[in-house]
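Hello,

Our lab assistant flagged a job as stuck in the queue for most of the afternoon. It eventually completed. Since we weren't sure the result was trustworthy after the delay, we are filing this so someone can double-check. Below is the sequence as submitted and the structure that was eventually returned. Let us know if re-running is recommended.
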Amino acid sequence: CDQVDSAKMPPVKEPWNVGMLVLGCRNLPKLDTFGLSDPYACISLLRVQGQVADQEFLQVDHDVSKVSGKEKTSKDQTKATIVPQHRTRVVRKTLNPRWAQIFQFREARDVQLRQDGTLAVNEEKVPISGRFPTRVLVTVHDRDMMSKDEFSGRLCMELKPNEAWEGEYPLLDQRGEPLVGHSGEQATILVKAVYSMAEYLDQAATEKHVEEAANEVCKCSVASMQGWRSSMEDAHDIQLALDAKAAFFGVYDGHGGL
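-- returned structure --
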């Protein structure tokens, strides 16, 4: 807390931030002959240049060979593939995975519609900007140890500045049609996204806040400092007596309102 240097202030010109909580999926399709799936999700942000219809985004897909470490046996030439910016952990043997993982985005990939109707995706990341439409691309895959990982559904959702989304959204197949899961019902994904401007102070708030707690078993203290952000985004929790034998201590890192 004592080491605050104004020279280390991040040079933020477009201080936009997207925080995304990926909770899990329900009713994924069963892709393996024996046993259940080992699902994971890949997430990327797309910054859209020009007017691009929803159906056009089916051309953009994640290249999971870079994630899994296995090269694809074939490449769909109609797809503009990108390396995922983030990936959840793999959950073994389930069609209803729960990840509950938070991801932070400050950069996206530019997407432009060519004159021939195909999409061009720039692999170089660009800062998120409230001046351009932004989409989040989520694809779900089944981890396969013997061959390439299999596609298990996708979501491509438009995000608007200073708005939040939370809900259970239908997964689509590669043609953009609703994806039917193993039970015969719609496959879905549960996500929350916040698209906001990360506000900074002109000068760091360096006042330290110290809290102490003790009982007959243990003693603890916690110190916090706001820093450059416009408000304290982090939090902590101290529960010294959950029961006769247990206590709880937690420190939580804030992620754009998630």
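-- support follow-up --
The delay was a queue issue, not a problem with the job. The result is valid. The first strand starts at residue 16 and ends at 26. Confidence is low (pLDDT under 50) at residues 1-13, 71-75.
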